[in-house]
Write a structure and sequence with these properties.
By secondary structure, this protein is α/β, with parallel strands linked by helices. It is built from 8 helices and 13 strands. Helix 4 links the parallel strand 4 and strand 5. Helix 3 packs across helix 4. The longest helix is centred in the N-terminal third of the chain and has 10 residues. About 35% of the residues are buried. The mean pLDDT is about 90.
Length: about 280
C-alpha cells in the first residue's frame, strides 16, 4: 500500500479514510464484496481534509490489465452490433455544451474512447472530422474499422480537441496525465473533462466506487488547474444531486432514470463536474 504524505492536489497533510464500495459500513454491501475478490477489494479512499480530493491506490499495471481484459466484458453493450451513439444521453448533452465553446475541430482524440459516442455525434456535424481513440480494450477493433475511427498511437499529436468523458477518475497520477495530454494539443486546442462530483453528499450515501481510483470535487480541480498552470479554463458543477440517484428504501444507488434529469444548467449540488481547458 502506498503511503500518502501530502495531497497531490493541494499539499494538505490531514486525511480521513472512507470504506471503498461501502461508505456507511452497511452489512449488505459488505457481504457482497467479501466474496468478490478483485483489485478493488478491501480498499479505502484516502480523502484530503483541505481540498476534498480522494484517492485509492492501485498499481498501474493491474489497472491496465483490468481495462484490457475485464472492464468491457462486464458491460452489457454488444460492441459488434452497437449503433446507439445518435441517442446516447451523455454524448448528446456533452455535445450541446461543447459545440459553441470550441473551434470546429478537424482532429479529435477521445481517451478511453469505447464507442466514441461524443466524437461520432460531432462528426455528424462535421464530416471532415478525423477521430482517434485511445482505448486499451481490443473489443473495439471491428467497431473502429466500421466507423472509420483510428486507434491512437503513442507519439501522435496536433489534436484540436481531446475528450475525457468519465476517464480521469480511473487513471493514476491525473495531474501528469493531463499535462501530457495538453502537450498533444494544437495551439487554441481544448480538453474536455467530465467526472463524478464526489462531494460530502456522495460519501454520506452508499454509492459503489468501483472501478474509480480518483475522487474529485470543485476545490480539488481548482488546485489541479492552478498547479498545472492551466490558466484558460472553466469549471461547472451540474446534473442531478446525489440523493436523486439513490433508493433510500433499499439503501443502494439507482441510476434507472438518470438521463431524464437536467444536464444543461449549473447545479452547485450536482453529481457531475465538467472542465474545459484551452491551450
Amino acid at each position: 500500500m502506498q503511503k500518502i504524505i501530502s495531497c497531490s492536489m493541494c499539499n494538505g497533510k490531514e486525511f480521513i479514510k472512507i470504506r471503498y464500495n461501502n461508505h456507511l459500513n452497511k452489512l449488505k454491501p459488505k457481504i457482497k464484496y467479501l466474496f468478490q475478490k478483485n483489485i478493488f477489494s478491501n480498499k479505502k479512499i484516502i480523502v484530503c481534509k483541505k481540498c476534498g480530493y480522494g484517492n485509492t491506490y492501485i498499481d498501474k499495471a493491474k489497472l491496465d490489465d483490468y481495462y484490457k481484459s475485464l472492464y468491457w466484458n462486464l458491460r452489457s453493450e454488444e460492441t459488434e452490433n452497437y449503433n446507439g451513439y445518435k441517442t446516447h444521453g451523455r454524448g448528446i448533452y456533452q455535445l450541446k455544451y461543447v459545440i459553441n465553446k470550441i473551434k470546429s475541430p478537424k482532429k479529435i482524440l477521445e481517451i478511453g474512447g469505447g464507442f466514441c459516442d461524443f466524437s461520432l455525434l460531432l462528426r455528424d456535424k462535421n464530416q471532415d472530422l478525423k477521430i482517434y481513440s485511445d482505448e486499451l480494450s481490443s473489443n473495439f477493433k471491428n467497431y473502429y474499422y466500421r466507423n472509420n475511427i483510428e486507434l491512437y498511437q503513442k507519439g501522435q499529436s496536433g489534436f484540436d480537441h481531446i475528450h475525457l468523458s468519465h476517464v480521469l477518475e480511473h487513471i493514476n497520477n491525473p495531474q501528469n496525465y493531463l499535462n501530457n495530454l495538453f502537450s498533444l494539443l494544437k495551439n487554441n486546442g481544448s480538453i474536455y473533462v467530465e467526472v463524478p462530483n464526489t462531494n460530502k453528499d456522495y460519501y454520506d450515501l452508499n454509492f459503489i466506487d468501483e472501478p474509480h481510483v480518483n475522487f474529485f470535487n470543485k476545490p480539488a480541480f481548482q488546485y489541479l488547474l492552478k498547479k498545472n498552470n492551466f490558466n484558460r479554463s472553466e469549471i461547472e458543477i451540474f446534473g442531478p444531486s446525489w440523493d436523486k440517484l439513490y433508493n433510500f428504501d433499499l439503501g443502494v444507488q439507482s441510476f434507472s432514470d438518470f438521463y431524464k434529469n437536467d444536464f444543461d444548467n449549473k447545479n452547485n449540488n450536482g453529481c457531475l463536474i465538467r472542465l474545459l481547458i484551452y491551450k
